[in-house]
Amino acid sequence: MAPERVKEMVARADKLGVPRNSGMFKNALDTVQNLSPETISAKMDFLRRALGCSKSEVGIAVCRSPRILSLSEDNLGRTVEFLKVEVGLEAWYIVHMPAMLQCSILKWLMPRHYVLKVLKAKGLVKRDIDFYSVVCLGQKRLVEKFLDCYKESVPWLLGAYDAACAGQVPLEIKA
C-alpha cells in the first residue's frame, strides 16, 4: 500500500475516535480500509436512530468495537431491536457493550437469552444478572455455569438450549 494511502487510512481511523494506542485501532484501520467515508457516516447515523442515542454515544460504541460499522444495516437493526425489545436492554448498555451487535441473534444471543429467561422465571439466578457477561461466555463455560448445575431443577433446559441454538424456539420456553 502506498504511503499516502496509509496516511489517509490512519487519518480516517483517527476520525472514528479510536485511540492509536488502543487494541481496537487495528480494527478501526481494517474498517476504514473497507468502507467509504459516506458508508461510515451512513452507518453511524443509522446506529444513532436505531439506538435512539446521540452522535457522541454512537462514537463510544464505535471506539469500543469499530467492526460494528462493517455490519449491514439490516443486521444491525434486527440485533438492536432484539436486544432492546426481547432482552430489555437500554441503549446506553448496548453503546457500552457494542460487541453484542456482532453476535448472531439465532445462534448466540437468543439461546442465551432463553436460558436466562427460564432460570430467572424459576428463581434460580438473580434477576439483575449481567446479560453481556453471559454473552461473553464460550459454549463450554455457559453449559457448565448455567445448564449443568441446574439440570436437577430444570432437566429439559439443556435440550431446549440446543434446540434454540439450532434456530427452534422450544415450547417450554415459549410459555
Automatic annotation (TrEMBL):
InterPro entries in the record: MTERF, MTERF_sf
KW Signal (keyword) present: no
Swiss-Prot/TrEMBL GO biological process terms: DNA-templated transcription termination
Signal peptide segment: none
Pfam families registered for this protein in UniProt: mTERF (PF02536)
Record Gene3D superfamilies: Transcription termination factor 3, mitochondrial
Key word Transit peptide present: yes
Family statement drawn from the similarity comment of this UniProt entry: Belongs to the mTERF family.
Protein name stated in the entry: Uncharacterized protein
Source organism (scientific name): Arundo donax (Giant reed)
